[in-house]
Amino acid sequence: MKRFWIWFVLVWLAAVKNLSAADVTVDAVVKVQHFLQYTAGTPVQPSTNGFSFQAFVLASTNDVVTGAVVTLPNISTRILTNESPVDWRFEEKFDSAAAMDAAYPHISFSQYYTYQMQMQTVNDGPRANNCSYAPSILGLGIYPATPQISNWTAAQQIDHTRAFTLQWNNLGNNANDVVQLLVEQNVTNVYYTSPKPFTTNALTGASTSVTIPGYSLPPGTDLTAHLLIVHVAGIPDTNNYAAGVAALGKETTFPVATRPAPASPSLTLVSRTNNQTRLLLTGETNRSHQIQATVDWTNWQTLITTNPTSGTFSFNDVTNLTRRYYRGRVGD
Question: Is the pLDDT of residue 10 over 70?
Answer without folding.
Answer: no
